[in-house]
Amino acid sequence: MSQPQPLVYVIEDEEDLGRMITDTLVDFGYDARFFSNGSQASRALQKDRPDLCIIDLGLPDMDGLTLVKQLCDCDEIGVIIISGRDSLPDKVLGLELGADDYLSKPFEPRELVARAKSILRRVRGRAAHLDPSQELASFGDWCFRASNLTLNHCDGRVENLSATEAKMLTVLFRGSGHIVSRDQLLGDYLSPYDRSIDVRISRLRKKIEADPHNPAIIKTIYGAGYMFTAKVRWHT
Question: Taking the domain 7-129, which CATH number applies?
């Protein structure tokens, strides 16, 4: 049996643009649904879980970044931000919240489709990148559980990871003590927006480092990649 069409929500307050994006996605074989504001999309999200959401930041009833955060805090859903806000802080903030990509207006619909295809392939492959035989890993004062994507500290703190963060962390685990390149971190699922690697490494550091601005566990090797310096122990 063939896989069902990926479900994509297009959340855009400019109706002409939103419908053009939706029609283009349908032409390329996606089940795409258009919403002109965040409230409509939020209600739809309670009924059906999309594979990907394409979100404009300038929604009439809420800040699109609020919706981005809600999506990235729940089940794994691909997120592309589209916006007329072309400032670096907005891009970085969107990625820090968990978005997979950021596309500034104006853009070619075909480019958006290409990015959507890449992200959907990555979302569908995320689970496969987490080795079920390696359920539990410990390093320093932390314990990582692959089954629920959590980091547990010996003092009781719990940090939740996105699937992408967990995948990147397991890649760093496997390369512990060695340089891990950017391409190795995201492999075939490399984001078109390379800055996302730096942002996600920054998010991991904020969760596991005593001083994220002077990291001791995830070291940057300039011009080469990153190195995980802590000893990793796998438990079955």
Answer: 3.40.50.2300
